[in-house]
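TL;DR need structure tokens for one chain.
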Amino acid sequence: MTTTLETTADPNPHELAFLGDRLSAFNDTDVGASGKQALAVFVRDESNAVVGGISGYTAWGWLYVQWLWVDERLRGQHIAGRMLDAAEAEAVARGCHGALIDTFSPVAARAYERQGYRSFGVLPDFPVGRSRIFLQKKLPAA
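>> reply
TL;DR here they are.
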């Protein structure tokens, strides 16, 4: 087999999906099916506009919070904590035993620690001048 290498900033969505499918098939064979399922929590204002939210997924017994955002006007009102509580409750209902989140905001890291998350790793200079902090939390049994 002859191969070539291609580097692109504009990958074909179908080819990305192919990669994801192939990796999932490998992982399913290696460690078992992930049971990956999307999970989102939204906070809406009186006009139904999104003013906060979580996007992530559950897989292999873990909740992964990929994005968590709260509108500036609502920060400091424990909205993030309420959203995490909701996401964690759903994750427990799905059989999850742990939760994972990462941030490069020291303020966000402290908020997650108040929610019971504990740092297990730090990647310095991601981005330069900051550190990416990885946090986890043991979830209660259902």
